[in-house]
């Protein structure tokens, strides 16, 4: 399992029976392959699918069956299809239980930037803003640093803000942070990762919970 798969598998553990879940572009799309067999969730895609399944096997893709990021998907028995307006009505109406989003940056109070890089042309914010404002819970899944090795968890955003709404949970290949009123709280270290490494690679300030976990071991 590589780092991105680890992040997706960890995020899948946050889902509960009956959740309606929107998976963003990038690492979030991998979550579909790691949903525990003992829970039933309904994966939603902004382009008009409810009931997305795991990634298709090689050679079994349908070019007409894609998610909002234009990646091929499967659908489960009982899935439904609808137009984009209906899809966004679900989001804006508060019917999405959990959104799992990728990001460019997260700031010290849990706000994110995930739709534009200054100086580069973009088509628009897409569904990210709606998902932040309309979802009951928002989980971020991201690599801890960017390709240059700079922290993606920063004191202040340098990319355009997506929404003032703070996310609830941040999951990287190194750690899990909960977002509270007073900022970021480290609640879990990935197996084999030291607290010192997380501190070194996290630019934003964070607090350490009274107890946090490393794998299945409780750290005090």
UniProtKB/TrEMBL annotation:
Task: Name the Gene3D superfamilies for this protein.
Answer: Glutaconate Coenzyme A-transferase
Q: Which InterPro entries match?
A: 3-oxoacid_CoA-transf_B, CoA_trans_fam_I, CoA_transf_AS, NagB/RpiA_transferase-like
* PROSITE patterns noted in UniProt: COA_TRANSF_2
GO MF term (any one): CoA-transferase activity
Question: What Pfam families does the record point to?
Answer: CoA_trans (PF01144)
As recorded in UniProt, coiled-coil segments are none
Q: Which UniProt keywords apply?
A: Transferase
Alphabetical list of PANTHER family matching this protein:
KETOACID-COENZYME A TRANSFERASE (PTHR13707), SUCCINYL-COA:3-KETOACID COENZYME A TRANSFERASE SUBUNIT B-RELATED (PTHR13707:SF57)
Query: Which family is annotated?
Result: Belongs to the 3-oxoacid CoA-transferase subunit B family.
Q: Which NCBIfam families does the record match to this protein?
A: pcaJ_scoB_fam (TIGR02428)
The protein, known as: Succinyl-CoA--3-ketoacid-CoA transferase
Natural source organism? Neobacillus cucumis
């Amino acid at each position: 399992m590589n780092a991105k798969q680890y992040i997706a598998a960890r995020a899948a553990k946050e889902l509960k029976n009956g959740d309606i879940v929107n998976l963003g572009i990038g690492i979030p799309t991998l979550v579909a392959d790691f949903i525990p067999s003992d829970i039933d969730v309904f994966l939603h895609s902004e382009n008009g699918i409810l009931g997305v399944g795991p990634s298709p096997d090689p050679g079994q893709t349908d070019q007409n069956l894609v998610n909002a990021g234009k990646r091929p998907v499967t659908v489960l028995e009982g899935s439904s299809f609808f137009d984009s307006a209906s899809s966004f009505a679900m989001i804006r109406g508060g019917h999405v239980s959990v959104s799992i989003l990728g990001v460019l940056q997260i700031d010290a109070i849990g706000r994110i930037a995930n739709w534009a890089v200054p100086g580069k042309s973009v088509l628009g914010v897409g569904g990210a803003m709606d998902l932040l404002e309309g979802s009951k819970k928002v989980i971020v899944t991201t690599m801890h640093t960017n390709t240059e090795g700079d922290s993606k968890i920063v004191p202040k955003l340098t990319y355009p803000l997506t929404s003032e709404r703070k996310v609830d949970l941040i999951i990287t290949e190194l750690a899990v942070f909960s977002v509270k009123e007073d900022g970021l709280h480290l609640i879990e270290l990935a197996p084999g990762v030291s607290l010192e490494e997380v501190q070194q690679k996290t630019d934003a300030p964070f607090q350490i919970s009274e107890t946090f976990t490393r794998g299945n071991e409780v750290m005090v």
